[in-house]
Prior knowledge:
Elements: H1 2-8, H2 22-29, E1 48-49, E2 55-59, H3 64-69, H4 76-88, E3 96-99, H5 122-139, E4 143-147, H6 149-156, H7 162-165, E5 177-181, H8 184-188, H9 193-213
Amino acid sequence: MKAVQQEAKRSALDYFPSRINYPALKTASKDCRGCDLYKLGTQTVFGEGKVPSQLMFVGEVPGDYEDLEGHPFVGPAGKLFDRALEEAGIDRTKTYVTNVVKHFKWHPAPRGKRRIHEKPNATEIRACTPWLVAEIKLVDPEILVCLGATAAQALLGKDFRVTKQRGEWLASEHVERTMATMHPSAILRAPDPEMRERQYRDFVGDLVKIARVL
């Protein structure tokens, strides 16, 4: 029973460096065993970009490409994300991009050559959240953008629904200007080209809103 309780209490905080700065946090995250996802992921995929930055994007979890390359948003969803940023007039090099969970979660039986990601559960999100909170403090963004439901619920509460409040300006405990929009991977999973294009245009529209207040 005692071992179970100790296991439940694990989190990223157990692996934090004594001195909090971006290089130290990123290095420390490589050894994180705050949840069991380190057993699945090839490596920790920490956030990257400008520190500090006016604009910070938070996604869900690294994907197959991100896990192998060690960088956030570099796979198909990352390429769509880059295209949308460019259309909206946002320079990605001046932003900071990260995920709620830093290790890739995937089903042990891969379909074909690609490993298909799975949504992180509440325990995994809770264990990893200290990394994200520390990133937000260091990046000190004026605008925080949640990409998808997992990021939005982690930062805005479990009852938040992106489908109902997508593209709205909200205040959060972290940043005065917060917005939730769809995750680029969700656009790629749209059932048909027409819906995919419609969702993409909505996504770009949200990014344009952000660009206007930068």
